[in-house]
Design a protein that fits this description.
four-stranded antiparallel beta sheet; Methylamine Dehydrogenase, Chain H; 323 residues; mainly beta; single chain; 4 helices
Length: 323
């Protein structure tokens, strides 16, 4: 009886112990909001997936990249410019390029620690660092991305080491350039891959979401794939068009699973999700969540299907450099 009593007390004591941070992280995703850029604007969602802020003026077309800044403002790029707006939707910075379809386009932007903005100028095939007076303080001529302005590049990122990662769409390539524009690393993708972005991780590896092969890969500096998420993984839904990705403090990935330009998109209810490195899905954002709060789909001209056009995702407060 004494042994049984001691055993019961031990079990009770263990049950009352607080969970370790790693164990707690296994059970539940940390609290979060979402900032999402999509075809016609930017929106912020709370943890219940309700749209709590929505910016979609008539002059905006295709928001490829969106960032919530530390001061609460939102910086985003659209096809013909980069804009920063306050929470009450006042424009405080507006970098514009000529509205010349097929000749001019901006595919990505990135706020830099010194207050400047990195801009991918697809029309002129340049990477630009632009200050708040809209002066170009640094410019890099990019290796040729092909004749089609829209298909040349997807996104560009400046790394903590001061190099630049550029995703080539038609060339199926990731290039890393130094400040002088010299190539220091490249990763050649498969013929059926088109990379949306490339994120340099603290361990030196690079995370690459591939939108046409429906997979996300992590590669080391030697080009070896060290982790992969693809359509063969049992997620409970189809991995369809992984575009925007952010890595959280705990290593989890927050991923856009877009129905953009995809003929199967009507069957794709899950538009974003968070997944652990051992491939457990912690939460999903569904198109029904968006539509409940008024985000209506747009019928695409080519596919003739309703699309929600989600492209960029950020969890404010998480490492912005891992997006």
């Amino acid at each position: 009886m004494k042994y049984f009593t001691n055993l019961c007390l031990t079990v009770l004591f263990c049950c009352l112990l607080p969970m370790t941070p790693s164990a707690a992280a296994e059970e539940k995703s940390p609290p979060r909001q979402l900032l999402i850029g999509y075809g016609e604007g930017v929106m912020r969602l709370d943890e219940q997936n309700h749209i709590v802020w929505h910016y979609h003026p008539a002059d905006i077309e295709t928001v490829y990249d969106a960032w919530q800044l530390p001061n609460g403002n939102v910086l985003f790029c659209h096809r013909y410019g980069v804009r920063e707006v306050t929470p009450d939707q006042k424009t405080v910075w507006d970098y514009k390029i000529p509205r010349e379809p097929g000749k001019q386009e901006i595919n990505s932007c990135q706020p830099l620690p010194d207050g400047k903005v990195l801009i991918l100028d697809c029309g002129n095939q340049k990477l630009l660092e632009v200050d708040r007076d809209q002066s170009v303080t640094h410019s890099i001529d990019l290796p040729d991305g092909g004749k089609n302005v829209h298909n040349r590049y997807m996104q560009a990122r400046k790394t903590p080491q001061g190099t630049y990662l550029i995703s080539y769409r038609d060339n199926k390539l990731i290039l890393e350039l130094n400040a002088d524009g010299k190539e220091v690393w490249r990763y050649k993708l498969n013929d059926n891959d088109r990379a949306f972005t490339a994120i340099r991780l603290p361990n030196g590896r690079t995370l690459i979401p591939c939108i046409t092969s429906y997979r996300i890969i992590e590669v080391d500096p030697e080009g070896k794939i060290t982790w992969e998420l693809d359509k063969q993984d049992d997620l409970g839904f189809e991995l369809l068009y992984p575009v925007g990705v952010q890595v959280r403090h705990n290593g989890n990935l927050v991923v856009i699973n877009s129905d953009y330009h995809h003929r199967k998109g009507m069957d794709n209810d899950v538009q974003a999700f968070e997944i652990t490195r051992d491939k457990r899905v912690l939460w999903t954002l569904k198109k029904t969540d968006l539509e409940t709060d008024g985000k209506v789909p747009v019928v695409e001209r080519v596919t003739k299907m309703p699309s929600h056009h989600l492209l960029s995702i950020q969890v404010p407060g998480e490492p912005a450099g891992l997006k």
